[in-house]
Amino acid sequence: ARHRVGRRTSTRHVLLRCMQRRSSAAKATTRLLGKMYDSHTGQQAGGGSYADLNGPSGHRRGISSKVNSAIWNHGEARRHPSREFTSTARRVIVKVGTAVLTSDQGYQHHISLGRLGVLVEQLARLVNNGQQPILVTSGAVGIGRQRLKNHQLISRPINALRNLDNTIDEKAAASAGQAVLMSLYDTLFQQLDCMSSQLLLTDDDFKTKEFRSTLRKTVDDLLEMNVIPIFNENDAIYNLPYTDAKSRDFWDNDSLAALLAKELDAELLILMTDVDGVYTGPPKEPSSELIHTYCPELHAEMITFGSKSSVGRGGMMAKVDAAWDAALYGCPVIICSGKGHNVLERVMQGELVGTLFSKIEARIAMEEHKQLMKRGGNAREMALSARQASRALQALTTEGRNAALLRVADALEKNSEKILEANKLDVEEATGMIDDQMLQRLILKPGKIKQLAAGIRALSKMKEPISQVLKKRELAEGLVLEQVTSPIGVMLVIFEARPDALPQIASLAIRSGNGLLLKGGKEAARSNAALLEVIHGALKPDVSPDLIHIIETREGVSDLLKLEDVVDLVIPRGSNALVQHVQQNTKIPVLGHADGVCHIYVDQDADMDMACKIVVDAKIDYPAACNAMETLLVHEKLVSGGQVHSLLDSLKNASVTLYGGDRATAELALPPAPSKHHEYGDLCATVEIVRNMGEAIDYIHANGSSHTEGIITDNKDAATQFLQKVDSACVFHNASNRFADGFRFGLGAEVGVSTSRIHARGPVGVEGLMTTRWLLRGEGHTVQKDSKIKYTHRDLPLDA
């Protein structure tokens, strides 16, 4: 794959080279746009190669009469319930605003070829997928104005330039710009074996039924021939009002797109602009929030509109009016940014992109709002109430918090049948729908609930973590400083099919005095609800249930990650994709790990009976766990001496499928492993041969995830070196990797395992959820530029 910078450069050069092979008109367009091209294409969307639209032989694939929704299914993991319909929408109208087509500030009215090329590519992909895209495009006036200005500069004598009138009539600009714009579209679509056609309309055209019928027939014929119709209002010959008028069918390209959606029975309308969607206020204001589903009852009075576009005629108010007009007719509309990465493709995949206008979804949003009000509000309001509850919890005595923990432990055991019944329904529904690794994490068993209860009781016996004095220092006579422990505040924990994580995290929140927001996977919805109901019941009356919230609405993870002003720590627990997405898309500190590629190195001085037991336990005790062994490293002398076969046979007898690294594949006749950095999560493991311990350590550092590693050896010096040199969160000697667990470490429970090097590392219990504060007690001390104070800086006993 090309690097992104390389792709940008390549895209521009390919576009220019291809256009130069066209007609003389296209060549003239190319020369002009080459001058106008925005060399600062940092904002251009990325995009797949044009070759992606062709079959293996390079010939274009046949067009299906139906939509092949499978082409969008690689985005299924990110598909939002409110957007599932997009992957099967056949007739799709895409309206592109001037701000999308033109370059950013400093290059207004200059075409952004990279961004336009990617848009054309995605439209061509829709055609290839059996869909019927219709394009409504703006930009002609701005492009024409720039072209006419350039033409005047090069066509007049130098002495006439000083008196040159730079005023350009909009009709003339529209006429000149339309020719350039359509020539460019036609040239780009031809490179993808697609054809486009131009239709210019005025409001008066729609006054007769005959025209409407003819228009529909023409568009239907074009679409059946896989031709992309490109619409624009005919600004060159017609005066349109810049505001809505009841006597007009449309008054700008936004309302034209909405009108066409109704006239042509479109199944989806996408209005692309230069912002991510509709906000509750100006997009750049920190307090403004992106609205994912527009509901007039909720948002009509809430939205404040800013100024109109500086390069186009419309504004967000015009888009909202047009979108809701089409939605009322029955065509869903999405307003989104056309400047993002592959936005059109993401919309078609059903991702939570932009703002949706839909009568059905608006009703659902209204019902959700009513339920939210009953439960305490949206995620932001839940976070605020959790913070208030956490402060009240901190004010309780140690005995009061311990009593709450014991009530939770008892309630879990007392209601185990209810919890297991809810879990059984989740498992039955998820079977066959999720992979085996996730399914195993979803299952709760009676023994697991007893273990959870035991861990919570162990938490209640631990030393009080809140307001513990860590340092005490006299700064000056009568001026004493203390550093004390304090809860972090409000935690957001995002977890997939792991219902056992909920009581662990909830109990740690109670013990540490933190507020808690939980976002669980839909696979465990019943289990999570049953667990939280039990916990809420046990908290009363001393602790408010507002301390712990589970977010059951369709608010996306991306929305929750934007709550940096009310959430202090986010902890993702789940797949690598989930953890990486969280780490890359939030300003909130993240505690967790993305991979669990754990190693065991069997040294030449290992007790082989011990090694066999440890290696088998580390692999099969719970193969889906993040601390399970994924790679077995063996000293080469164990291979030459034959001892390695006892290790391999022990794993094979335990139904473990073995794969080899470079040497093991050749010397032990094992099939090659998928990669050196591979987390199987099931009964599979990689085996590799190393020359010595130093090579084993280098291999771990190069291919591991800094989670948990182990050495098996009777050589104490070798063990000491291994423990000191391996830079992972947990490093063991002659013990199974499966001991890397909060409960087994005596932490009572854990919120997860952290592989970061800041704050907590390894299994994170109560101590990892605490921070510190400084308390200063004086007797009227002032600084006064340090002229009248004598510093002592004397450490004091903590109990003084």
Supply the key terms.
disordered N terminus; 6-stranded parallel β-sheet; 8-stranded mixed β-sheet; 800 residues; alpha/beta
What would you say this structure looks like, in words?
It is a single chain. With 800 residues, the chain is α/β, with parallel strands linked by helices. Helices cover 40% and strands 16% of the residues. It has an 8-stranded mixed sheet, sandwiched between helices. α19 links the parallel β12 and β13 (548-550). α14 crosses α19.
Helical run tally: 27
* Beta strands, count: 24
User: What is the average of the pLDDT values?
Assistant: 84
Oligomer: single chain
- From the helix content, strand content and strand pairing, which structural class follows? alpha/beta
Report the span from N to C terminus.
65 Å
Strands ordered across the widest β-sheet:
3-4-2-1-5-7-8-6
Radius of gyration: 32 Å
Give start-end ranges of low-pLDDT stretches: 1-65, 241-245, 309-313
